[in-house]
From TrEMBL:
It comes from Flavobacterium saccharophilum. The chain crosses the membrane at residues 5-24, 44-64, 71-89, 105-122. This is Putative oxidoreductase. It is a multi-pass membrane protein. Belongs to the DoxX family. InterPro entries: DoxX (IPR032808), DoxX-like_oxidoreductase (IPR051907). It is found in: Cell membrane. The keyword Membrane applies. GO terms for cellular component: plasma membrane. The keyword Transmembrane applies.
């Protein structure tokens, strides 16, 4: 069993739940129209919103299958970083408690994705 299996499944569940529900409750279209288009991405807001959410679904499947892990990780990290820059940074650190809608959740997901992508660290010939 791969040492990253539990983390890969957990992140896959998070990515799927964060994406799939918005596909059925108009959340993705609302995010595209009511947020992305309003901050300067018009007329591509809906396309970008769907691209983001579909990238999450693909990344989740790749994580579960343990295929193309680095590609899935880098794409997802890019999306999470853009979420920090565009949405969460101005709200501060905390998601709940000391604030609302902050960066801490994205930060944790980014660190976990790096741990999945580089289970032996960043060194070329890391020894366990």
């Amino acid at each position: 069993m791969n040492g990253t299996l539990l983390l890969r499944i957990a992140v896959a569940i998070i990515l799927l739940t964060h994406s799939v529900f918005g596909m059925f409750n108009n959340g993705i279209n609302d995010f595209g129209n009511l947020y992305l288009n309003q901050i300067g991405f018009a007329p591509f807001g809906v396309f970008l919103a769907w691209s983001i959410k579909l990238s999450h679904v693909v990344a989740a499947l790749l994580l579960i299958l343990n295929k193309y892990i680095k590609l899935a990780g880098f794409v997802t990290i890019f999306v999470l970083l853009m979420g920090i820059v565009l949405v969460h940074f101005e709200e501060g650190w905390f998601v709940v408690g000391g604030g609302r809608n902050g960066v801490e959740y994205n930060f944790l997901l980014i660190v976990v994705l790096f741990a999945i992508m580089f289970p032996n660290g960043f060194k070329k010939n890391a020894i366990e």
